[in-house]
Specification:
Elements (H helix, E strand, L loop, with lengths): L8 E5 L2 H11 L3 E5 L2 E5 L6 E5 L9 E6 L3 H10 L20 E2 L8 E6 L5 E6 L1
Parallel strand pairs: 1-4, 5-8
Antiparallel strand pairs: 2-3, 3-4, 6-7, 7-8
Length: 128
């Protein structure tokens, strides 16, 4: 029934201008703003709608994952732009000095690091 639908995802933020600066300038994504919110233009054509919400509550899960070729280089680049990576302190998922969980070496999935947008939503970069 919906197999031909061009579905897209969306999430809320409490400050659309701060989100536009973060996603556009800090992360380097294409951003198109209109009266309803903004659209993140991602590689592969998978647009994501971001909308302002006065009573926004940050997602308690990862809302957006960015696969990268070199997680160390990407972490370093984002840190240089002011991004702080999250540390969860979970014994089953230790993180190194860069806050990267090295899943590949432990045969437990990808290497991954999490960070938040200005609205507190959780994002990740990961290297398979």
């Amino acid at each position: 029934m919906l197999h031909d639908s061009h579905a897209f995802s969306g999430f809320s933020v409490n400050d659309i201008e701060a989100a536009k600066t973060f996603y556009g300038d800090t992360l380097g994504l294409g951003v198109e703003q209109d009266e309803m919110g903004m659209t993140l233009k991602l590689a592969g054509g998978n647009d994501i709608f971001v909308y302002p919400k006065a009573d926004h509550q940050p997602a308690s899960f990862t809302i957006l994952n960015f696969p990268v070729d070199d997680i160390d280089k990407t972490v370093d680049g984002l840190v240089a732009k002011g991004v702080t990576f999250e540390r969860y302190g979970l014994p089953e998922m230790p993180q190194d000095e860069k806050a990267i969980a090295r899943g590949k070496a432990a045969n437990m999935g990808p290497d991954i690091a999490w960070f938040k947008d200005p609205a507190g939503n959780i994002l990740s970069i990961l290297e398979n």
